[in-house]
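FAQ

Q: What does a record look like?
A: Structure on top, sequence underneath. For example:
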């Protein structure tokens, strides 16, 4: 009976190994037929990214036009007053680099025009075509000085009698509809830059139209930054096949290069495979589907989709060589091959171990030796795990800002970072732009290895929000970060609800000699901002939104708070690890109130001395007890 049981056990083991090997073989050969699926998945994703960038670009412009249109609908004709006109619309153009000018024209041919020249000169043009005998056209030039617009010159301009806004496409189109209209892209007469005009008829003042001229430099350059594949490309065309979003940086290297290629036909591009893709798509009469084609004996995959902007239609195109798309498949096939060799190798080990087990049943003396061998293996695996975690710590440390970077950006600041385990769920983050310093103290779900893995996702989401999407406002950064984190976790079939709590600050750059107040912007998810004014006896608290960066039942946009700080003021952002630590004589939590008193007691000290005193207070409180959670505190003196 025992012999039969042993044979059954051996048969089960061999069968499982064989089944596993067969499954791997089936997966290996199945990959050969997945090229179409991979091409569709990658190209669809990249074309959607381009479409989202177009939404990001055009959406706010349309909202801005509607806001200005609404002012006139409410009867604010005083907006055309010279003093109010240039202050309001110069500031609007200055705040939105993609907007070149603002125009208001009426049915008599009169117009008022505010625009910018070379990002340093503003001009205000008023023509009176409907009152030629009374007034000459007037041109004013302005410059910006200390945040104010200063008049340079003003003179009558007879040449502008020939310009009639009523003959412009944007005026005619706006007068034919009650809604917003977009013109086809065209070359602006003044700057010769590619652009497009958005306009809308003002119902409360029949015959009057407001319009914005928008340059398309952003779209022209943004598509060059989208990585389809090593030599693939993303681009945007007009409905007639003229390029407005270029595939490579060589077409947008400088102003003159971009001017030379502005709105040129796709057939003028150097890349034959892009031209072949467009003509193949047109000739086959395709719509949004992914298709393959050949160009110069090489195989390519492409996808073209229509992007609607009012009555205009743009074409979003993405193209990539087939051998670059199937690169991941080949890597997967190699991994499966290695897996099959590994299964064979493991099978030999298992068979040998099974035979050894049979012998061990006969020789009880060998059992001790077998147990010791297994223990040694466990110890080795444990050592390997610890080594892996230590290596993970090196990786996590690498994504944290170095002390040199922190000191360069915030000379009078400290970072107290005390992970509970080798790797941590808490992390601090910093990013510098031309005019501001962004920094944050974040607390991801859990600690140790799980928390560290979540922290990598969240850290990457913060970087993308600022670097890829160009967001600088703390609240909007948290909104975009939440969107990215949720998107990353939704790729899993499991319901992942991990995320992070965070305090994010934006501090404007100032010279060390400046004594004027500094503007601090803050947004938070659960974690607040504490401010201790110079010589203050209380902590000023700016509360965070009561929602995490992650899935939440009723999410709301994060609030950006603005606080004016003076020289000598200190502020702090932190995770909850310090306040939640158990310790003291009774083994209780430290709590937020005691943390505030601690900060008040050290706020007048040198910033590095503050760090040392806070660190010592934590160790004294914790005593022999285990650290409960990661600790991350950032303190800054203005």
């Amino acid at each position: 009976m025992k012999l039969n049981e042993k044979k059954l056990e051996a048969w089960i083991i061999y069968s499982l190994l064989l089944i596993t090997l067969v499954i791997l073989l089936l997966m290996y050969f199945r990959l050969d037929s997945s090229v179409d699926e991979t091409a569709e998945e990658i190209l669809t994703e990249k074309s959607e990214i381009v479409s989202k960038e177009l939404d990001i670009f055009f959406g706010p412009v349309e909202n801005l036009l509607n806001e200005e249109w609404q002012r006139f609908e409410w009867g604010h004709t005083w907006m055309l007053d010279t003093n109010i006109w240039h202050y309001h619309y110069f500031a609007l153009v200055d705040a939105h680099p993609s907007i070149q000018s603002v125009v208001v024209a009426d049915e008599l041919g009169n117009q008022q025009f505010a625009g910018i020249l070379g990002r340093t000169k503003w001009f205000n043009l008023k023509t009176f075509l409907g009152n030629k005998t009374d007034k000459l056209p007037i041109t004013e030039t302005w410059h910006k000085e200390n945040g104010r617009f200063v008049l340079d010159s003003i003179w009558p301009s007879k040449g502008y009698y020939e310009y009639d806004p009523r003959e412009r496409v944007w005026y005619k189109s706006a007068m034919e509809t009650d809604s917003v209209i977009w013109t086809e892209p065209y070359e602006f007469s003044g700057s010769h830059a590619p652009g497009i005009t958005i306009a809308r008829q003002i119902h409360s003042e029949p015959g009057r139209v407001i319009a914005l001229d928008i340059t398309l430099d952003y779209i022209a350059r943004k598509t060059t930054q989208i990585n389809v594949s090593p030599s693939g490309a993303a681009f945007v065309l007009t409905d007639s096949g003229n390029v407005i979003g270029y595939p490579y940086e060589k077409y947008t290297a400088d102003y003159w290069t971009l001017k030379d290629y502005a709105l040129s036909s796709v057939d003028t591009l150097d890349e034959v495979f892009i031209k072949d893709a467009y003509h193949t798509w047109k000739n086959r009469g395709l719509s949004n589907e992914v298709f393959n084609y050949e160009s110069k004996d090489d195989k390519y995959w492409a996808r073209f989709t229509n992007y609607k902007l009012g009555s205009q239609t743009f074409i979003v195109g993405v193209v990539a060589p087939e051998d670059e798309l199937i690169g991941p498949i080949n890597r997967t096939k190699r991994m499966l091959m290695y897996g099959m060799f590994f299964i064979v190798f493991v099978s030999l080990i298992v068979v040998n171990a099974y035979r050894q087990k049979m012998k061990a049943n006969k020789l009880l003396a060998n059992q001790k030796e077998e147990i010791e061998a297994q223990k040694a293996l466990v110890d080795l695996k444990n050592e390997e795990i610890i080594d892996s975690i230590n290596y993970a710590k090196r990786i996590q440390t690498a994504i944290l800002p170095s002390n040199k970077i922190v000191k360069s950006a915030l000379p009078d600041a400290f970072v107290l970072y005390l992970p509970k385990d080798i790797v941590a769920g808490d992390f601090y983050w910093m990013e510098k732009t031309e005019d501001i310093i962004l920094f944050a103290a974040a607390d991801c779900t859990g600690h140790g290895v799980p928390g560290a893995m979540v922290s990598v996702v969240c850290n990457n989401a913060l970087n993308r929000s600022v670097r890829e999407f160009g967001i600088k406002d703390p609240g909007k950064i948290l909104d975009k970060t939440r969107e990215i984190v949720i998107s990353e976790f939704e790729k899993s079939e499991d319901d992942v609800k991990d995320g992070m709590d965070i305090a994010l600050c934006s501090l404007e750059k100032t010279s060390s000699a400046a004594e004027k107040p500094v503007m601090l912007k803050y947004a938070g998810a659960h974690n607040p901002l504490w401010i201790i004014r110079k010589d203050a006896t209380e902590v000023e608290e700016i509360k965070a939104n009561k929602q995490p960066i992650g899935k939440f039942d009723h999410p709301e946009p994060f609030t950006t708070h603005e606080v004016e700080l003076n020289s000598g003021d200190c502020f702090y952002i932190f995770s909850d690890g310090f306040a939640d630590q158990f310790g003291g004589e009774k083994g209780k939590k430290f709590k937020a109130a005691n943390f505030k008193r601690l900060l008040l007691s050290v706020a007048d000290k040198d910033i590095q001395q503050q760090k040392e005193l806070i660190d010592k207070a934590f160790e004294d409180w914790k005593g022999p007890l285990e650290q409960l959670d990661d600790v991350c505190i950032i303190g800054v003196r203005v």
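Q: Is there anything notable about this one?
A: The two ends are 84 Å apart (CA to CA).
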